[in-house]
Write a structure and sequence with these properties.
Radius of gyration: 20 Å
Number of strands: 0
Strand content: under 5%
Distance between the termini: 19 Å
Structural class: mainly alpha
Order of helices and strands: HHH
Mean pLDDT: 90
Helix content: over 70%
Amino acid sequence: RVIIGLTAEFGTVGNGLGGKTETINRLILENEGYFHSYRSPEVEKRVKQKYLELFYPSSPKWREGVIRNGRYLVDTVLKRFISESEKISE
């Protein structure tokens, strides 16, 4: 049997310093609310929704892009693996 391990990271908030800052801010707000409670139910709902978006974005465009890029990545890795396997077996 052959096992090919593949891990990919698809960002959810954006690239660059702005995306990193937004991600950290969402993590901090969720953590603070969890351990010290939220100011109101409305704030809790908004913070939890933004936190969820870090891991499970609702944007159809984002999801389509991830599927497209993921398929490309898997196809590329498999083609490269098959090509290398053929070279070895020759």
